[in-house]
Structures are given as structure tokens and as C-alpha cells.
Amino acid sequence: MTTLSLVTSAPRKGVDLAIRGYQRYLSPRKGFSCAYLVARGQDSCSGVIRNVIAERGVMRGVVPTMIQFAACYQAAMMLGRERPRVNGVCCCGGIPIPIRF
Predict the structure, then answer these.
(1) What angle do helix axes 45-56 and 3-21 make, rounded to 10 degrees?
(2) Least C-beta-crowded within 10 Å: which of 7, 72, 76, 79?
(3) What are the pLDDT digits (tens) for 9-54?
(4) CA 53 – CA 43 distance, rounded (Å)
(5) pLDDT per position as a tens digit, 63-83
(6) Euclidean distance between the first and final Cα of the chain, in Å?
(7) How does DSSP classify residue 41?
(8) Helical ranges in 31-61 per DSSP H
(9) Any idea what the Cα angle at residue 15 is, between residues 3 and 18, rounded to 5°?
(10) CA distance 66 to 58
């Protein structure tokens, strides 16, 4: 293994560990599901982003991660028009995306 691969794999592993921790300990306790998951019936944002980071790495995964956040926001807005009573924030970590579903 080269030095370059060690540098790129450590951040990838760290982000993966953080996402796994979020999925295991925080997400089940927040009381609502990811808007993207509810609207699309596919992976949650954390699952999609975890796959992106695993495939592309942290730096090359930034743009796809932002695209996923935008897709989650759009799903939240769509669901908010359909069911406006329940509020929360998206499961996308530190970026609060309002959810009404």
C-alpha cells in the first residue's frame, strides 16, 4: 500500500465510521425517517452518502453529497405539501433541511 492510498483511506474510513455511528445510534432515536427514503423508497441519505464515500472517497464525494442533500430537500418539500403536520430536520447530519411529512 502506498503512502497516497493510506492518506486517502484514513479519511474515508473516518467518515464511514461516523455515518455508521449515526445510522446505528442517532437515526433510530430521532423519531422520523429521511424524506428521501420516504419519498423514493430507496436508501436514506446517509446510506447513499456512505456508498458515495466508499466508492469515490471524501474529496471526490463532496459534489455528489451536496446533490443528495438537494434531492432530500426536494423530497421534503414534496412531502411537506402532501402532509404538512409533522416537522423535523433531514437526517443529513450537520446541514438542517426542514422536513414536513
Answers:
(1) 170
(2) 7
(3) 899 999 999 999 999 998 888 877 888 999 988 899 999 999 999 9
(4) 15
(5) 999 999 999 999 988 887 766
(6) 47
(7) S
(8) 35-40, 45-56
(9) 140
(10) 12
